Amino acid sequence: EVQLVQSGAEVKKPGESLKIFCKGSGYTFISYWIGWVRQMPGKGLEWMAMIYPGDSDTRYSPSFQGQVTISADKSISTAFLQWNSLKASDTAIYYCARHASLGRTVDYWGQGTLVTVSS
Amino acid sequence: QSALTQPASVSGSPGQSITISCTGTSSDIGTFNYVSWYQQHPDKAPKLIIYDVTNRPSGVSNRFSGSKSGNTASLTISGLQAEDEADYSCSSFTSSSTLTFGGGTKLTVL
Q1: Which residue among B34, B47, B97 sits closest to A105, beta carbon to beta carbon?
Q2: Quick one: which of A87, A89, A96, A72 has its CA closest to A18?
Q3: How far apart are CA A6 and CA B69, in angstroms?
């Protein structure tokens, strides 16, 4: 059974850094793109980025390029999303998403990580 | 890349059929047959219900179907049931080798 288990909720202050993670299991981690999707409070889904753990190739949405960094450690089947300086507007639920069909659809989702940025 | 365009809300009565549209451009929906649809109940993670325009993952009801014409994809739900009340979002592969989502549509079962 494919499972994506994400790190727990975070409360941070503006300007702080943060790294959240997503551990995959039940499939060959290095063979599928894995990425992140943002959902701001009461809003729709926004695709952020994905990484192919097999060779660390990455793709970013233009909206998020330079704002976050995606990475993966294939030795522990875990993907990460990192911010260097959080803003209040980063407050959202972040879903980990396994991408199937060579990155063309999301077939499995993590449970979501709520990130709250407030002074 | 811009988000795909969906209606904010649709509604229907039990047993009826509804259709949700998802409009993109020639850089996404118009070029690629990689449109997916997701169902999201309140406070839950999304769930894939349609991929590659028309395909249903194993376990998804055949009351859900997808289609595409030009730059617009559509999701049809037939025989509406109370449990179908949820948010529905589309996604498409893009010419930048990324994904883009629609803004989501809230389905109300009257």
Answers
A1: B34
A2: A87
A3: 37
Placement of tokens 């009801």 in the chain: B61
Which of A61, A99, A112 has its CB closest to that of B45? A112
CB atoms within 10 A of CB A60: 20
A95's tokens: 């879903």
A59·B36 Cβ contact <8 A = no
Q: What is the DSSP string of chain A?
A: --EEEE---EEE-TT--EEEEEEEESS-GGGSEEEEEEE-TT--EEEEEEEETTTTEEEE-TTTBTTBEEEEEGGGTEEEEEESS--GGG-EEEEEEEEEGGGTEEEEE---EEEEE--
- Are the C-beta atoms of B83 and B22 separated by less than 8 Å? no
Judge contact between A89 and A118, C-beta under 8 A: no
Q: What is the pLDDT along chain A (119 residues), one digit of tens a residue?
A: 999 999 999 999 999 999 999 999 999 999 999 999 999 999 999 999 999 999 999 999 999 999 999 999 999 999 999 999 999 999 999 999 999 878 899 999 999 999 999 99
Structure tokens given for A54: 């097999």
Residue B83, helix vs strand vs coil: helix
What is the distance in angstroms between the CA of the first residue and the CA of the last residue of chain B?
35
